[in-house]
Amino acid sequence: MQNMIFSVDKLQKFTQEVFLKMGCSPEHAQQATQVLLSADLRGIDSHGVARLIGYVRLWEAERVNAQPDIKIVHETPSTATIDGDRGLGLVIAPYAMKIAIEKAKVAGTGWVAIKNSNHYGIAGYHSMMALEHDMMGISMTNASALVAPTFSQERMLGTNPIAVACPTNEEPPFVADFSTTTAANGKLEILQRKEEEAPIGWVQTKEGHPTEDAGILKKGGALLPLGSDRVHSSHKGYCLGSIVDIFSAVLSGANYGPWVPPFPSYVPLPENPVGEGVGHFVGAMRVDAFRPAEDYKNHMDNWIRRFRNSTPVEGQKKVLIPGDPERESEKLRRKEGIPLLEPVVKDLQSLADKFNLEF
Amino acid sequence: MQNMIFSVDKLQKFTQEVFLKMGCSPEHAQQATQVLLSADLRGIDSHGVARLIGYVRLWEAERVNAQPDIKIVHETPSTATIDGDRGLGLVIAPYAMKIAIEKAKVAGTGWVAIKNSNHYGIAGYHSMMALEHDMMGISMTNASALVAPTFSQERMLGTNPIAVACPTNEEPPFVADFSTTTAANGKLEILQRKEEEAPIGWVQTKEGHPTEDAGILKKGGALLPLGSDRVHSSHKGYCLGSIVDIFSAVLSGANYGPWVPPFPSYVPLPENPVGEGVGHFVGAMRVDAFRPAEDYKNHMDNWIRRFRNSTPVEGQKKVLIPGDPERESEKLRRKEGIPLLEPVVKDLQSLADKFNLEF
């Protein structure tokens, strides 16, 4: 499949116009665009403009409210709970993160649980908002159930990512952003396109047996938690995914487990919801709430340098630091543009036609 | 190897006497004993009285201060940093958790970073202290380097466990407590005793190659992060272990990465330390800082019931909830006593001889 290259500016302008056509305020359109584009820049293609049409379809299905009245429904000095009013997670999560940062300025840390939201893009974006304030940022979200817990046939958890960003002094920041599964959906889609098989340990059949079928999710199969199988500690990945689900939804009042609303608008909503919408959880910790910021940041530099300089195994140039691959991608794509696959370009073209926009 | 069964009371009394002989205050001796015994009760044999002799040796080597002056060196409304004065982590971590709980009562959440500590026992004990206050408890610690990051030959991280405890209403609490590696050291020791091989994906050789040698750590090999290899997302386990290291040590001013002091007293301390002692990080979040406690706890009950009732794969009776196996163990062992392996009994006997105690 061919890639076409687009300039960041062009994609940014177009994406923003689409959000405006949905009825988003200029401020919200800009924020949502920034989150999507940051995914494309960072090389997380599954979470960038490739999803724009999905958000539009959710809006058309009246599952996304383009003009949400986002508000705090509960708070303490270091916490808040946000009702996202069915808005775009792309807008609600940064709003919540700003509250976490403001709380941290006063209380040392700030923690915000979010209900009644939708898909929030890449977890990393929100955690990284803390960096410029010399804070550590934390972000996580639940998602519709595709993952089978250890010993389960049923899909009970989403890919439930966690992101943690840590400020530094001279080194680039530490940014870990990862799903709590062995492989996320996007990797299976790539294999299906190439007509290749999945490694054992990524997915299981409807009955819970190991399989190499990269298309097994469409046949009732499930993704596996980080760890793959019991022998390799899949129960730890199951714990992690569960923790994300509980922080994001049981704490906020959103849906959890198999009740989390799906991203594709054609998939029916789960019956008898146990909460409102998708849930997220974000946090900010002032590093100088623990020790002088310069000490922390200098030691982060030292941490990064020591790990980067550890002896690599044969055939590898160096040991990577969380955030390195995404930073490399961003450097390249800011210069050379963002490559999009043909089906993504077609989707964007169809959005241009729908909204009478130029693409 | 034969097991001998001991009553909880007898082990408790003996362990407490050993800590008193080390010079611990009665209060500290009781606290340290409680943490060790909770590991034996919960079936985490590697972290119970089997380690008592190790703590005594650290004290003999003057690496543990039995009469520490534990104090807060920095704080904000929701945070504190503790200097453990080289005391037992078994005493320092519960002390820090109490501060986190007190902070949470006022600020909604409380977060405490700890430096200048030692091995703190099972992570789960500290997180569970929050439960009776209707709080979620979080606990993590770094440990001496046995784990090779993805692409690294060198051991750079400890098994760095994370524990999260969530209060419930009618169901028993959710308690996840797990190392961020595919397998922890204890499992390898069991295989070595049985002269069995380790599954591929648990360990690597000194050169970074896959191996089934359960004794490879003694030959310069390394444990692998949760995920095992790059194809199965070991980089996510590497991220997790790194996050625990940074929260525990870069935030607190303890040693991190390859500088973390070892548990065995005969292993030399790493040169040129970058901080003080071992580091931990604990936190407590009042659930009613986010929503009414009854709502949260009822939804936790519902979460647990739904997951417990998910359809198991063939050959499995049911899907487990984090904390189930440990709870089963505790029920059984409170009734039938705690089984100890012969070498552990010998170690305890040698402690009895050393301190003129009855065992």
TrEMBL record, chains A, B:
It comes from the Bacteria. SUPFAM superfamilies: L-sulfolactate dehydrogenase-like. The keyword Hydrolase does not apply. Gene3D superfamilies: 1.10.1530.10, Hypothetical oxidoreductase yiak, domain 2. Keywords: Oxidoreductase. GO terms for molecular function: oxidoreductase activity. Belongs to the LDH2/MDH2 oxidoreductase family. This is Malate dehydrogenase. It comes from Persicobacter diffluens.
